[in-house]
Amino acid sequence: MRKIIIAGNWKMNKTQIEAIEFVNQLKRAIADIQEVDIVVCPPFTALADVKDVLLESNIGLGAQNLFWEDSGAYTGEVSAPMLKSLDVQYVIIGHSERRQYFQETDATVNKRLKSALKHGLIPIVCIGETLAEREAGKTFVVIKTQCLGGLQGISSEEMKKIILAYEPVWAIGTGKTATPQQAQEVHAFIRRQLQEMFDEETAAEVRIQYGGSVKPDNTNDLMSQPDIDGALVGGASLKADSFVDIIKNSCGVKT
Ligand code: PGA
Predict the structure, then answer these.
(1) Are 93 and 113 in contact (CB under 8 A)?
(2) Catalytic residue among 97, 104, 133, 167
(3) What angle do CA 228, 88, 121 make, to 5 degrees?
(4) Ligand 1 atom closest to residue 9's alpha carbon, by position in its atom list
(5) Which residues' Cβ are closer than 6 Å to ligand 1?
(6) Nearest atom (ligand 1) to Cα of 175
(7) In whole angstroms, what is the distance from residue 134 CA to residue 132 CA?
(8) Centre of ligand 1 from the C-alpha of residue 237, in Å
(9) Section 168-191 average pLDDT
């Protein structure tokens, strides 16, 4: 059975002090939860301090991006070995905001992905269609293209280590969540796509998170869908109360 994974994507939010305060609160509130994997993805500037607070806790640490070269003259970039040196375990790759505002493409997603895997980071690769693409009936074509491009040259063994996040762009930060049925339909399509690109065993193992206006009150319905294995949470991961409720509402759903 695939273990549910709930990750908080803080985006460009929280100073160092705010981050420390938040994870201390979170750690206390969910100390006894083992049933779901829990991850926080603070901005780069808070990773080192958050790492110290999370030591020996049940909360994993993730970054929001990485550059594909290990080191060199790339002003402003952060590499996989740098993240590894801070005990970062996960890294979000190809978030739609990176695609929209920072010219991220499937080709650059693929380069970042290969660097993450090479250095033993667990990638959370984001895919999803825009509203215009959905309304034009292109959702599945877009998802297929993103899978083929982003996951190019990846082996089945590597694929098993990757987490995918289906995030319909129209649902991100808009309060408009995909219905559980809409999300399930695309998740099932992604799994079939993985079966075509890799094999049945790999497709059955890969965890696919849903992201886009996940809140405590829609978590249970989303997580009960057979092909939804977790959530990538933006806005609702910034407040301890709502993030804790999302985590708690994900417990016991699949059993
Ligand atoms: P949201 O963001 O939960 O605020 O919609 C999700 C995401 O961008 O990962």
Answers:
(1) yes
(2) 167
(3) 60
(4) 9
(5) 9, 167, 172-173, 211-214, 232-236
(6) 5
(7) 5
(8) 9
(9) 94
| pLDDT at res. 10 | 98
Residues contacting 94, CB < 8 A, separation 6+: 104, 106, 108, 109, 112, 125, 126, 127, 146, 150
Contact present, 144 and 152 (Cβ < 8 Å): no
- Superfamily the domain 5-250 falls into: Aldolase class I (3.20.20.70)
Query: How many other C-beta atoms are found inside a 10 Å radius of the C-beta of residue 157?
Result: 10
Q: Please, is 15 exposed, middle or buried when counting C-beta atoms within 10 Å of its C-beta (0-12, 13-18, 19+)?
A: exposed
Choose one of 9, 13, 127, 246 to mutate for the ligand 1 pocket test, by most ligand atoms within 8 angstroms of C-beta. 9
The C-alpha atoms of residue 61 and residue 53 are separated, in whole angstroms, by 11
Q: How many residues does the chain have?
A: 255
- How would residue 255 be classed by pLDDT, with cut points 50, 70 and 90? low
pLDDT in tens, 74-117: 999 999 999 999 999 999 999 999 999 999 999 999 999 999 99
pLDDT digits (tens, 9 = 90+) for 141-153: 999 999 999 999 9
pLDDT at 1 over 90: no
What are the E-state strand segments in the chain? Answer: 5-9, 37-41, 59-63, 90-93, 122-127, 163-166, 207-211, 230-233
Residues 24-81: tens digit of each pLDDT: 999 999 999 999 999 999 999 999 999 999 999 999 999 999 999 999 999 999 999 9
pLDDT digits (tens, 9 = 90+) for 117-134: 999 999 999 999 999 999
CA distance 140 to 163: 19
Q: In the annotation, is 95 catalytic?
A: yes
Burial of 158 (0-12, 13-18, 19+ CB in 10 A): middle
